Every structure is written in C-alpha cells, then in structure tokens.
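Form 7-S
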Amino acid sequence: MWLQTLLLLGLVGLMLDVCYGYSSEDEDYYMQELLSREHYQRVSEGRATDGLQTPGRGIRKESRSTSAASKAAGGSDSASAVKSGNKKSEKNKKAVKAAGGVSDGSFTADKDDCPPLGLETLKIDDFQLHASTMRHYGLGPHRGRLNIQGGLLEDDLYDGGWCAGRNDPLQWFEVDARRLMKFTGVVTQGRSSLWSSDWVSSYKVLLSNDSHSWVTLKNGSRDLIFIGNREKEIPVLNTFPKPIVARYIRINPRSWFPSGGICMRVEILGCPMPDPNNYYRRRNEVTTTDNLDFRHHSYKEMRQLMKVVNDMCPNITRIYNIGKSYNGQKLYAIEISDNPGEHELGEPEFRYTAGSHGNEVLGRELLLLLMQFMCQEYLSGNPRIRHLVDETRIHLLPSINPDGYEKAFAAGSELSGWSLGRWSHDGLDIHHNFPDLNAVLWEAEARNWVPRKFHNHHVPIPDWYRSENATVAVETRALVSWMEKIPFVLGGNLQGGELVVTFPFDRTRSVTALRQLTPTADDHVFRWLAFSYASTHRLMTDVSRRVCHTDDFAKEDGTINGASWHTAAGSMNDFSYLHTNCFELSMYVGCDKYPHESELPEEWENNRESLLVFMEQVHRGIKGVIRDVQGKGIANAIVSVDGINHDIRTASDGDYWRLLNPGEYRVMVRAEGFSVSSKVCTVGYDIGASRCDFVLGRSNLSRIKEIMQKFNKQPISMRERLRQRRLLDT
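Output:
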C-alpha cells in the first residue's frame, strides 16, 4: 500500500515538474482571465519579464529543407536539445513518456525533414483546429491555414486567417494531429486581407498528449520564443532544435503588429509515428501503384526526365521547344503520337499546358507524371493508352514560365507563399497577357457587322499587339505562334490554388461588372468538357469537402464560367476560342499551389483519371475532310453549325474537327471559289467523332474567272456592264 502511495506522489510531482511558466497557464483561457490585465498590457508592449524580447533580427534565410535550426528571440543561435527546467525532470524523461506526458525530443540525435501536416491541403479538417477565442466565425480557427485567401468583401463566412477575439498573450491556436507526431517546425503568415494588416511577430510553442497538460519548448531554463512575421504575406519558418513527439500542438502569440491584432495562418511540420492501430490514419491514406518519379524537378531535372521518357519510348515521343523565356530558358514540350513530328490527316491535335504562373507547381509535376505514365502504359500494352496515342497527337508543355518557377523552387513548397514566382521575369501575368479579342468581337456585333463584314471566329490580332513595343511577354508571343501553327482542337491549362474547372468567357461583357455569367456560343459543349474533368476528379464534385478559400464550387459540379468567378481580360482561354479552332479550359487541380513532395502521389491519384478522360473528349463531335471534285483538300474552308454562332476552319490538308454534344446538326461548309454545301450530321453518345465529309464544286463565278484568266482577259463585273449599257443607250 505504501509503495502505491509513493508511486502516486511521484507521478503527481512529475506532472508539476513538466509544467511551464506560471501554473495558471495550464488552465483554460477563461480561467487565465483572472490574471491582471495590467500584466497583459506589459507583455504586449514587450515590458514583461517572462523572457519575451523584441526580435533583434529575423530568422536566417529560409531554405527548402525544413531541417535548418530556428533562432530564438532571446539571441541564442544554439541548436541544443529542448530541456526541462530542473534536474528531476531530466532524470525522468522515460517516466514522462510512460505517464502520458510529452517527450522533450532529447532521445533522438537526428534532424528530420518532415512534411507538413496538411492544413493548407485540407488533410487536416476543421474539427482538428481549435483556438482560445475568435473575432467572428469567418476568422475562426478553421480559417487559420497557410496561404488561405480571404474574400474581396471579407464577410463573416470566409475571411483570411484566424484572429483572436482579444489581443493578449493568453491566446492560442491549436492543432490536433489525431495521432502521435514527431513535430519539427512551424510556418506562419499574417492575415490575408486587402483592408487590414494583422500578424504575430513572436510566439511560443506548447505540446501535449491529452490537451490538458502542456509543455512549453524551452531554451535552457527559459521559454523558447520564436520570431514570427514582419508583414502579412511572406511565410516564416521556425524549426525546433530537435523533434518533439506529441499529439497536440499549440501556438501562443506573445507579440503582434501594434496597429493590428493577433491573426495567423499556419502550417505545422511533422512526421507521423508508427501506429498500426490508428484507424483514422489508415482510412484517409491514399496510395498509388504507379512507379513514377514523384518529386519536384528543377529546370535541368525536368529536361533530363523528358529525355528519359523520350529514350524509353522513341517511337511515340518527340521533344521540341516553342521558344524561350525572358531569361533564355527553352520552353520544352513533348509530343506523344504514333507518328511524332507530323500532322496526320484526320487525327486531332490536343494540348496540355502548365506553369503559366510559375508558383503553381502541381500542374507542372502532373504533366511530367502523365508523360511517364503514358510511356510506361503504352509499352505494357494498355489498350486504352494505345488507342489514345494511336488516334491523337498529344502535346504536353509542362513549364510555360520557367523563370517564375525557379524563384518558387528556390524558396520551397511551404515558403514560396501565394505569389512568389507567379509572374514572368518582366512582371507579366502570362495567362492573362493575350490580346483582348472579346472587346473586338463584341464591338463588331454591336455595329451589326457579324457575319457580313466580320467573322464570328478567327478574330484577327490587333496590329499594336504584334509591335515590338507592346507589353507582351516573350513567353506569350511563343504561345501565340505555337497556337497558330498547330491546328489544336482541345486544350487544358493546369492551374493551382483551387479545385474547379473554368471555361470561357473569362471576361464579362459589362466593363463595370466584377463577375457576371458570360457564356460563349458553345456554352453547352464547354460545360460538358468541364464536367468531364471535374466529375472524374476524386475531390472536385465531393459536396462534403471543405472549400479551399471562399467559393464552394462543389455545389456547381466543380465547374464555373470564368466570368462568373471573376472577370479577366486577355485570357488564354478566350484568345484560343476566338482566334483559333481550339476549345481551351482551365483546370485548377489543387488547393495547394505548391504541395510538398510527399503529397504528389495522392495528387496524382486525384487527377490521373481526369487527365485521361479530358484528353478523350477530343474525339467527341464531328470530323471530316473538305475536298474539291478532284479529291484535293481545301484549306481554310469555313464549317458552320446551324444554331451555333461560332464557326471553325479546316486545316491545311482540308481536315476539320468540330466539338459537339450528342444530337443531330445541320452543318454548312463554304470556301472561297466553291459552292456552298450542307448536310445533317449525327453525333452519338459513344466516344468517337462522327465522320462528316464534304465535296465542294467550283462556283459559277469562280469558273468564269478561271476562263478569263486562262485567255488573259479580265472578268467584267456586273456593275461595270450596267454602266457600259447605259452609255450605249444614251
């Protein structure tokens, strides 16, 4: 009996030893409120005596590795192990772990490069995030995720971070990992807002296994205080001196921007501890069986990977470049086809592009994975992939903006923020750097020039845009030339930061409207194309998933008209539709623009089927060849569909492809010097475009012109004949 009593007293004493600072700080916030408000004020002004000091300098330059040592605000640069405040606790480290306390990390000597827990990628759900207080629901702990964006109006539902209801040093933001984790660091930002400036400039870190007893990370005998942010957007990484094993982690702000308040966006770094009995983790794991190179690639590594794919599948691949970036890096593309390097009569051309925003890295890596996958599956005899390659000429351009990517890549996945590397080297948004042909077409329609004086398709590029002095990125010029050279039928550009597929138009007709439904003449086709990608994505149409930022696109089947989301002139999608035959859509493939390397297998599984299904849609609608009576293909012939105010044109060999939904259509073909021809073409529900060929005879006027030219005589126009007849009559 006496032995049990001694053991109980020892455990009680042990729990007291691992408590930090003041004993009352282990209690709930509302109990802590009993402390003097004068003390809170002194702390917030940096005059308290608990070890808080105004940071003398920021943390050292962030690298992509999460193993760099953090700097304490107290001026210590040491990476020594976290120690408890007295010798008794030091002697009983193992007992602490056995009693349910938190390990101080001194049991290990290695530095772990641990991935993020997933606040940004939404792997951590809202119920795992808690806080002492919140200003209002839209600034609750569920919004305290790294890189989360606030809405333009900053309403009560969707704001840009977690903000405490009170500005005092007893506030905290808590993450429940739902399993034992080896925590290694914290990344913080301020509040995302157009109208206010709020961030935390220093903080403590506390850990627990039961959410009741908390241990503060220490620097010797003093609480370790980490330097936070100096502005609201640039992420700041602080790594722990040694990994700490626990389930719960709290961030306790100690100072903040004086003109703002306590607001944070957070990501936690940590490695899961082995736990085969953890049902929650097993249930949510997504694995892949594809043997692919799941990592982030530098520009040089990207070239090497494309070369490896080309060496593996030389008969179906070809590497080429469409131009150079501002810094002279070649914009490499890979072609996948059974006859690479040439356009085959009747075979549609498809393209995927990525990386127009250099910091939206996921799309780039998905295309690198896609080219590996298609090569491997083609070699293994996968009938679906073989049919796709044999019947389609596929172009993959993984990095439109390699200059911007290099900036984001140098910072790393958690430190590149929301915009580092987004623009080209000369500061232009490549995706929205195309000529605004919407305004040109709509002005012609307002003047009733369409279709007599102005075509409803292949809208010409204004002369000013092609001038050398125009504010056009060299990457955009390369894209325009590429799009004009190859008769693409369907294309998708991979973006990041959301989970949605957008389709034209991207610009509203009203110049004053920020968002307004602005459909094209092919709206029903675009909606089907968008749905084909979104519906086969693992998450886009899941109505139970959490929104990435402010919009719940799952309610709209994971798709939206671009102008209904936000207006943007000169987009790649609108330009492609109005200037070429190609129907272009944007796929926002993940909430996290630059996911950690460890997330790539799951992101591949999320998008793999969608990438393939969307490519297959290039074979939906009608196709054919327009020939003259001698069997020669007629280039630049206009193909019109009754009821759709948007035409397309034939390629140089006279072949064409017109994307259409299932149904019967009256199709009319006309070309200069030829008679007009029309017929009814039927589109079925099965994949595979319906054949609809045309043979055009020469028009009577063109025959007269040919005869006159043959005998070196000029044809006399009807007006000239009438004038001569009047002269004879007088």
